[in-house]
């Protein structure tokens, strides 16, 4: 295997993994707080549509438009997550049903396609996209140069999100409290932690990250609009969060592998080995199931939040 | 101040008014949405009603679309009522469709009723196999069935895509002119197309009659049978069920099998009355498995109400598929369903809690998780995954519980 193929595989791992890392760290945080939001796919799609629409219509310099578009995409996701929060955290509705409703209501036959048709997004070429940045002028460095120092901002953002989430979870007071809320909300409450506020904050943050992750498709990876463009990647995100045992660093590794695997099929194809693309596509889901089985429900041992999916209230 | 407290009893008028009020709220929101997007709300409503209900062809189409949704809705209902969550109806439907197509192709030349019965049985078995995986893992390894069944949906989706798009499988049509241009599935023999006897011009699909029967069976099973009693006991408390001598593990497997069979039959119905071939793209686009979960939630996990909710979703979907165009964007159907579901789920809150207006009493704090670090008024938080929507305080079969 020539080194250029290796480099292209690593680059593809980083680029195609980036949206999954962004959405995944958000989902990881709200699952750590005990809230399982299965609506990632819907929030990603609505974020993707909102971001693309903003980038199409807003006048101004490129950096400004992209900044506003990213924030708008995140805000759209956050808004959906806030709705989810009101219904599930305050009103104790079933998180599974509500999350799936978010995924479908935002999905191919739902809000994202509706926004796309109202905003006439399909078949329109974008005016601004995230281009690779030449970081510190080190692009020419042999080997690592094109991999580490010549990526687009989304990729760098995914690195920051990973490191930031890991630091937040394991090295800050509120990260500790968040994990307590996910493990045993009653104990956290007795300790003086505002369970409801923590869950709201991280659910909304999860929505923001999902929206941003979705927008990284339309603003960087595949700068165009087709209905349902994530093709169920939001559910891969949920699988990756399990696969990573709710650990942001492992999540990054998982997303990277996924990005590599996406392109591995093509590489193998050029070398005369034909593996059906469906095999690689299904692999992360099978791996997630295998992880769950190997853990044998030992959520406690594996570091999975004990109170995942259960609403909390003081009144009986 | 506003005080929120759990309802101890539920009066009949509340039980009736809350869902109706929720639908009314949804109606108002949808009307606002239509006005805001510059589409005439009333003309859209009348177009939708005439496309899905008042015209005979539209009503026939509504029934065809509603049938698989009702069946996957029953699939979700049967497990949710026990406090376990099979959200793998989508994948079980795919496997059912795959098996039903294979049987119909294999039995070419046999009389129609033989093929149709064989299709249903094969589809039910295939659905069972696919739901057995999360069921067994749940029962014997305490693996989270929600996540396993969700992941298996995508495995099944890629499997049937592989059969049609990337292999020269039995299901794929390699001979016809169209099949050589674009990968499509073999069409099943005309004798195996599920009949839809006409009633005053409206086709009543065979699948719908099957769904009516199965909904009734599910309702009786949940309310009157020993199995239903066992399910309710387990939903109430796993440890109580175990002390009472119930084999909770076997119960989980049995319920998952029933659920998978229902979703599998939905796949057979879809092949028999709509697609007449294995059509991965079509199946993945309509997402009847997930629509079934929405129907189940709308119907508060009561089989008869789920049937009605399935018809409603069928009508919305069918009007969407007929009207889709410039004045009726493709995403509108999902958005409408979403608004309806969120309104009904939110209404579920009013069924479990009541909101009272009271003058502030000293030292009396409103409950429901306000942040002051006082001693919790109840020592145990309710460990329920299924809060507001109709399932009464069902203790989830917890991770620790089944070990």
Describe this structure in words.
The complex is a heterodimer of chains A (316) and B (403). Chain A has 316 residues and is mainly alpha-helical. Chain A has helices at 3-32, 40-57, 62-90, 95-105, 111-118, 144-148, 153-171, 173-183, 185-190, 195-221, 233-243, 248-270, 277-295, 299-302, and strands at 133-134, 150-151. Chain A has one domain (3-302): ABC transporter involved in vitamin B12 uptake, BtuC (Orthogonal Bundle). Chain A has a two-stranded antiparallel ribbon with strand order 1-2. In chain A, helix 2 (40-57) packs antiparallel against helix 3 and helix 3 (62-90) packs antiparallel against helix 4. Chain B has 15 helices and six strands. Chain B is mainly α and 403 residues long. Helix content of chain B is 65%, strand content 4%. Chain B is globular, with a radius of gyration of 23 Å. In chain B, a hairpin with a 2-residue loop joins strand 4 and strand 5 (202-203). Chain B has helices at 12-36, 41-54, 56-80, 89-106, 112-141, 145-165, 177-181, 206-224, 226-236, 238-243, 248-275, 280-286, 288-298, 303-323, 332-352; strands at residues 2-6, 172-173, 184-185, 198-199, 202-203, 353-357. Classes of the chains: A mainly alpha (316), B mainly alpha (403). At the A-B interface, helix 3, helix 4, helix 5, helix 9 and helix 10 of A face strand 1, helix 6, helix 13 and helix 15 of B.
Task: Please supply descriptive tags for the structure shown above.
heterodimer, A: 316 residues, mainly alpha, ABC transporter involved in vitamin B12 uptake, BtuC, two-stranded antiparallel sheet, B: 403 residues
What is the share of helical residues of chain A?
55-70%
- Tell me the strand order in the biggest sheet of chain B: 1-6
**Strand-residue fraction of chain A?**
under 5%
Overall mean confidence score, pLDDT of chain A: 85
Structural classification of chain A = mainly alpha
**Number of E strands of chain A:** 2
* The CATH top-level class label of the domain at 61-330 in chain B: Mainly Alpha
Helix/strand order of chain A, N-terminal first: HHHHHEHEHHHHHHHH
Q: Which percent bin holds the helix content of chain B? A: 55-70%
The coarse overall form of chain B would be globular
Q: What's the gyration radius of chain B in Å? A: 23 Å
State the separation between the terminal residues of chain B, measured CA to CA: 45 Å
- The CATH topology label of chain A is ABC transporter involved in vitamin B12 uptake, BtuC
Number of helices of chain A: 14
Q: What is the second-level CATH architecture of the domain at 61-330 in chain B?
A: Orthogonal Bundle
For the biggest β-sheet of chain A, the strand order reads 1-2
What is the string of helix and strand elements of chain B? EHHHHHHEHEEEHHHHHHHHE
* Multimerization status: heterodimer
Please give the CATH class of chain A: Mainly Alpha
- Rounded mean pLDDT of chain B is 84
Number of helices of chain B: 15
């Amino acid at each position: 295997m020539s080194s250029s193929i290796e480099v292209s595989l690593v680059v593809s791992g980083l680029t195609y993994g980036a949206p999954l890392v962004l959405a995944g760290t958000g989902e990881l945080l709200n699952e750590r707080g005990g809230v399982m939001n299965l609506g990632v796919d819907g929030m990603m799609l609505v974020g993707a549509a909102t971001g693309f629409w903003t980038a199409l219509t807003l006048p101004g310099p490129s950096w400004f438009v992209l900044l506003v578009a990213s924030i708008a995409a995140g805000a759209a996701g956050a808004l959906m997550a806030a709705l989810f929060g009101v219904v599930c955290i305050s009103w104790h509705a079933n998180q599974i049903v509500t999350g799936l409703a978010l995924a479908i209501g935002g999905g191919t036959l739902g809000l994202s396609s509706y926004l796309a048709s109202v905003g006439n997004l399909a078949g329109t070429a974008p005016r601004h996209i995230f281009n690779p940045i030449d970081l510190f002028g080190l692009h020419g460095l042999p080997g690592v140069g094109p991999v580490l120092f010549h990526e687009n901002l989304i990729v760098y953002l995914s690195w920051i999100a990973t490191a930031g989430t890991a630091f937040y979870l394991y090295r800050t007071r509120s990260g500790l409290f968040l994990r307590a809320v996910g493990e045993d909300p009653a104990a956290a409450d007795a300790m003086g932690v505002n369970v409801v506020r923590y869950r709201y904050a991280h659910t909304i943050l999860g929505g923001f990250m999902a929206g941003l992750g979705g927008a990284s498709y339309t603003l960087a990876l595949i700068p165009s609009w087709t209905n349902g463009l994530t093709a169920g990647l939001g559910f891969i995100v949920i699988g990756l969060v399990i696969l990573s045992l709710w650990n942001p660093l492992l999540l990054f590794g998982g997303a990277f592998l996924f990005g590599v695997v996406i392109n591995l099929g093509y590489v193998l194809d050029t070398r005369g080995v034909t593996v059906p693309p469906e095999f690689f596509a299904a692999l992360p889901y099978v791996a997630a199931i295998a992880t769950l089985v190997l853990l044998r429900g030992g959520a406690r041992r594996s570091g999975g939040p004990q109170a995942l999916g259960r609403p909390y209230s003081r009144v009986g | 101040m506003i005080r929120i407290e759990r309802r101890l009893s539920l009066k009949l008028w509340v039980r009736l008014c809350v869902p109706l009020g929720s639908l009314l709220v949804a109606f108002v929101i949808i009307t606002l949405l239509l006005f805001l997007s510059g589409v005439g709300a009333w003309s859209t409503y009348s177009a939708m009603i005439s496309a899905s209900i008042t015209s005979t062809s539209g009503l026939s189409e509504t029934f065809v679309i509603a049938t698989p949704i009702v069946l996957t809705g029953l699939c979700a209902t049967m497990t949710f009522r026990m406090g376990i969550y099979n959200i793998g109806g989508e994948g079980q439907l795919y496997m059912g469709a795959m098996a039903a197509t294979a049987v119909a192709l294999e039995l070419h030349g046999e009389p129609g009723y033989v093929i149709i019965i064989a299709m249903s049985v094969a589809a039910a078995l295939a659905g069972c196999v696919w739901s057995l995986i999360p069921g067994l893992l749940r029962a014997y390894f305490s693996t989270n069935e929600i996540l396993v069944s969700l992941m298996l949906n995508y495995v099944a989706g890629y499997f049937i895509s592989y059969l049609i798009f990337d292999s020269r499988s039995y299901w794929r049509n390699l001979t016809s002119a169209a099949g050589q241009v674009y990968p499509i599935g073999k069409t099943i023999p005309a004798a195996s197309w599920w009949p839809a006897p006409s009633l005053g011009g409206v086709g009543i699909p065979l699948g719908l009659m099957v769904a009516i029967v199965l909904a009734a069976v599910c309702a009786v099973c949940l309310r009157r049978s020993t199995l239903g009693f066992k399910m309710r006991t387990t939903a109430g408390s796993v440890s109580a069920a175990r002390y009472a001598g119930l084999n909770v593990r076997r119960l989980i497997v049995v319920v998952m099998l029933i659920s998978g069979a229902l979703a599998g039959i939905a796949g057979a119905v879809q092949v028999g009355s709509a697609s007449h071939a294995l059509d991965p793209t079509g199946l993945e686009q309509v997402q009847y498995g997930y629509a079934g979960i929405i129907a189940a939630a709308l119907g508060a996990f009561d089989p008869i109400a789920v049937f009605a909710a399935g018809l409603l979703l069928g009508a919305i979907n069918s009007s969407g598929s007929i009207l889709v165009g410039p004045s009726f964007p493709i995403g509108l159907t999902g958005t409408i369903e979403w608004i309806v579901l969120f309104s009904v789920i939110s209404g579920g809150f009013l069924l479990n809690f009541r909101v009272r207006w009271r003058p502030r009493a000293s030292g009396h704090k409103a409950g429901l998780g306000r942040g002051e670090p006082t001693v919790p008024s109840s020592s145990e938080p309710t460990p329920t995954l299924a809060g507001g929507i109709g399932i009464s305080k069902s203790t989830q079969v917890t991770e620790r519980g089944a070990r």
